[in-house]
């Protein structure tokens, strides 16, 4: 094609060039057309601006060709390893597993000892599962006193698992709460605490401050109902009866259960543990259900009985 300057304005070459030029302008963004959407004869010399300066002359800009130049970074993606796809993949044939062997053909179970007798069979399992273990949440006296000082627990009312759970003093209670004596010197208020278990030093610190400690039997199901407010956290059928008050037996509200196993019965019958069943143990009687306290007898009657039995058993 001949250059534009060598032909006149009325030549066919110039007209074909103008048609192609107009077709290109029709595909351009609208803000570029007012400047370039004219023939070469109509564009004055003062408006002949370099194309790379055109986007900076308008407030509204539209990147028309940026989508065609987008590409990923070279390190954006990691080449996937195609195992067992021939030598070109880098992990062909054996797929990186080597030749033969158990690791190439299958998996070895846990504790596999190369085909010989496992150590669990030769040595045996160490330890045992203690069926009597319980998961008690520890509660120290300094934490309990801090909750009372902050006003999160009312010291004038009995402090049960319900109050401890609602105030977030203890969390995730499973089998019960055990009262411990750390920070016993910080106790200032007479507290009436009802928990699952308590240490001897914690009981002594609470009682020295003028309070009381009562250990109460709870099951995990009962603890869930108590925290939801659907069960009485103190009274049950075996609780110490109050004069003029009978235990509630509502068929709609779950009743607080009492211990049934010997281990729990002996613990909550023991006055040393401040168990709520200690009123059932008479003075001088043992809280144990198996071992009975020795009866106190008069020494004279004991000696007289021995002499009589010896005389009766005499042969001559």
From TrEMBL:
What molecular function terms (GO) are annotated for this protein? structural constituent of ribosome
Q: Which segments carry the region annotation Disordered?
A: 77-115, 234-265
- Keyword annotations for this protein? Ribonucleoprotein, Ribosomal protein
UniProt lists compositionally biased (Gly residues) regions at 87-99
Limits of the Large ribosomal subunit protein uL15/eL18 domain: 138-214
**InterPro entries in the cross-refs:** Ribosomal_uL15, Ribosomal_uL15/eL18, Ribosomal_uL15/eL18_sf, Ribosomal_uL15_bac-type
Q: Cellular component per GO?
A: mitochondrial large ribosomal subunit
Question: From the record, what ranges are coiled-coil?
Answer: none
Any Pfam family the entry gives: Ribosomal_L27A
GO terms of biological process kind = translation
UniProt key word Amino-acid biosynthesis: no
Q: Which family does it belong to?
A: Belongs to the universal ribosomal protein uL15 family.
Put simply, this protein is called YmL10
User: What is the species listed in this Swiss-Prot or TrEMBL entry?
Assistant: Heterodermia speciosa
Task: Give the taxonomic lineage as stored in the record.
Answer: Eukaryota, Fungi, Dikarya, Ascomycota, Pezizomycotina
Chain's gene name: MRPL10
